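## Example pair
The file below holds two records. Each record gives the amino-acid sequence first, followed by its structure token line.
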Amino acid sequence: MKKRYMILSACGTGIATSTVAANSCKTLLEERGLKNIEIIECKATEILGKAEIMKPDCIIYTAEIPVAKLGGIKCFRAIQLITGIGTEQLADEMAEYLKTLND
């Protein structure tokens, strides 16, 4: 099992929405057997610099980010974590992806 999963959570201000998304994401992934998850929150405008420094396994975002400039880092649009609609499917997709990193 991978020691730690690093996820960046981005929203417009890096305060409210990214925190809600991060907390929901962590809970849902833990329910799917993924432990040792670290989620760092940031503003959408900070995502390129943070991604370069942190080298995350994936990014969740609720505001537009420059996905094409992120060098192939897997990104999940995560508005479902805010609305509650479609959270299970998103969590399944994320867990499935993260589990492949152990292969």
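Second record, same layout:
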Amino acid sequence: MGMFDYVRSSYPFGEHFTEVCHTKEMEYDDIGGTMSHYWISPSGCLYHIDYSNTADFVEIPEEELKSEKHKWMKYRWESNGLRGRVKPYPITKYVVIYPEKWSGDWRDWPDCRIHFKYGIVQDYEILKKGDYIK
């Protein structure tokens, strides 16, 4: 599957789109899947959730280095107390999201094609992956 972006939605797209969804189409330059996080509000506004600078890379204290767990690693990530930021993401394009978890047949796996204009949902359409195979 490769890398993708995570989308959580509070917008009423339907039962399959209430949990975590994936997409590869959010970025402006069609980079595709930078493992970024997004949220669609109940009113249809798209937001980018930025977790940068919320952890620091610190050296492990000498007494902990003696344990078997830290035999080869001398540094680790530690939360620094910052919570990140949520900011509007004003894209104008069509984006496809699909549920992260799907237990049914792949042909029944739903896609939600969303039309955003300035970061606000204009309309959407739900199709199954099998609908594209003719």
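Notes on the second record: Residues 5-51+84-132 form one domain. The first helix runs from residue 62 to 65.
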